[in-house]
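Quick start: read one record
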Amino acid sequence: MADLKMNIPPEVIIGSVNRLGDEAVFLGNRILLIADSALEGAIDDVRNILESRGLSVLLFSDAVPVSTTFTLNDALSMARGSHANVIIGMGGVKTLQLARATASLAVEKIFVDDYLRGAVRPVKGLPYIELPTSGRNPFMFRSECFLTEHSERYSRICPMPEESLKMIFLDPLFLDSYSDRYLYMAMMDILLHSVEAYLSPRASFFSDVQASRAISEVSSLLGFKGNAHSSPDRFSRIYEASLFSAYGGALNGVGAVTVLSYMLSGYTGKPKGAISTVLLPLLLESSFFPGNDKKLSLAKLCHHEPMPEDFKSLKPEEVMRRFQGLHELPSRFSALGITAQELSEAASLTYSILEAQIPSLTQEALFNILQAGL
């Protein structure tokens, strides 16, 4: 087990977003709100909260699900032209990456292409506040963002200035705007991040505690089919699980298959939650973590309570398949319209950015996981 060295700086607030203005007012008075346009009602609420504190708010709502460096250039033009002194990112995982990159590059006026190639590393960025409306972001406690290039669709993990990431705001009521199907795929996405954190060779006792709690919590939520909007407590539990998952992965680094899910989503334009839903049992069925004894203990974490009798003998990957079937979630890449060629390209691109960080990683191992899901 790896040594433990902790430095997790951003402040985390779990509660009503009504407090956002009280916190943001200490960071600046000209806010650029980068938000997913699908969150129209929530955007109006957040804007009103900020403006009620006398803050000037400019909205960038072109953060579509396939946001790329092309969208980033537009967001940077708005940030620099408006002289914004605070960036707030609001939405799902891809919108948050766009907002993080904007906060990173707005001050030093670094060219996006140079940033994406790793030729420059920003030292000073704008203060950044994050509102992950679906609760998910495996980069939550890491000063990094994941960018997709516009024309060739390759992606890179890029550094953020460490002082830029100021605050994470988690209001469970944001989940009220999402469908049951979206929430179930979001939970499968959280599970993928958590499983990788738990099985990581860089795991510590701290990451094990956090990741195992996330796996147990999400498995319990996924074990029953019902109206996800029936109880605010369910929203809170999803956010808590996401927070545990992000803590668990903060020290280990984001896992290779999680990066693969980002890469495949950016390359194909398909939702990351749907891709992670397909990937999760494939990862567990693979030999990606050879000789890892913790894979055996993973089964107990996946068995939700109260547990049906037939669950007790199931392997973790079989539990994930049950979740897919119970909630009618995608189980094959072909059902998402993803081709073998796209899978091959995604594996190659993922390997190219991780080979230096994970010497034991092979492109073949990544592709084998993907190929099993065609």
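The chain has two domains: 11-174, 179-371.
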